[in-house]
Amino acid sequence: MSANMLKQERVAFIDKRLQELYPNPPVPLDHSDPYTLLVAVLLSAQCTDERVNLVTPALFALADNPFDMAKESVETIREIIKPCGLSPQKSKAIRGLSEILINEHGGEVPQDFESLERLPGVGHKTASVVMAQSFGVPSFPVDTHIHRLAQRWGLTRGRNVSETERDLKRVFKKSRWNDLHLQIIFYGREFCSARGCDGRVCEICTTCYPTRKHPKRVNKP
Ligand code: SF4
């Protein structure tokens, strides 16, 4: 049996393998511009992308820009987005951020982290997704799934998503951040669920850690 890979070797292997498996990773959330992406990402908190994609056609038929959205009541928005969960908070946030975009940004989604993270309902991860997928700015949005895989692959010992993001940005080339974030998500969905694996089953772990004998402990974010 060959030895476990060194960290640098794991990084190179994972980078190459994910690129082979998912060469052009599509953006999972349906949208037509930065505003509709921002709203879709906000809706995806604690909800699947599939469900968000079922809900957004009706929402965007009603309003696909901040000016139209600000004319709608929170209750109307809430009724439509109910299947996504957390609808009281999310509907207020969508209405609130639409007003801020109109009043402070000329109706445009700002292209900087600070302004984005000041919007209601928008945290660092949501801002990172918008910066990466709408504006092409290298970002590494880390959610609980990426946090889990990065630990199982020995890329970080981060105790939370911020530490994991810092470590992933250190080990991977900046030009790969935006695609890698999606590629790790796709790999996780296909092979590595939150439960049901002890870190010794599929290709990446068995290649990186051929001698692994015990389940890899994962720090909860
Ligand atoms: S072996 Fe398990 S933990 Fe490792 S990547 Fe595969 S499914 Fe995930």
TrEMBL record:
GO molecular function ontology, one term from the record: endonuclease activity
Ranges of residues in domain HhH-GPD: 43-190
Cofactor note: Binds 1 [4Fe-4S] cluster.
Enzyme class: lyase
InterPro entries associated with the record: DNA_glycosylase, Endonuclease-III-like_CS2, HhH-GPD_domain, HhH_base_excis_C, HhH_motif, Nth
Catalytic activity: 2'-deoxyribonucleotide-(2'-deoxyribose 5'-phosphate)-2'-deoxyribonucleotide-DNA = a 3'-end 2'-deoxyribonucleotide-(2,3-dehydro-2,3-deoxyribose 5'-phosphate)-DNA + a 5'-end 5'-phospho-2'-deoxyribonucleoside-DNA + H(+)
Pfam families: HHH (PF00633), HhH-GPD (PF00730)
Entry cofactors: [4Fe-4S] cluster
SUPFAM superfamilies registered for this protein in UniProt: DNA-glycosylase (SSF48150)
EC number(s) stated in the UniProt entry for this protein: 4.2.99.18
UniProt cross-references to SMART domains, sorted A to Z: ENDO3c
Coiled coil: none
Family from the record: Belongs to the Nth/MutY family.
Annotated protein name in UniProt: Endonuclease III
Record organism: Candidatus Paraluminiphilus aquimaris
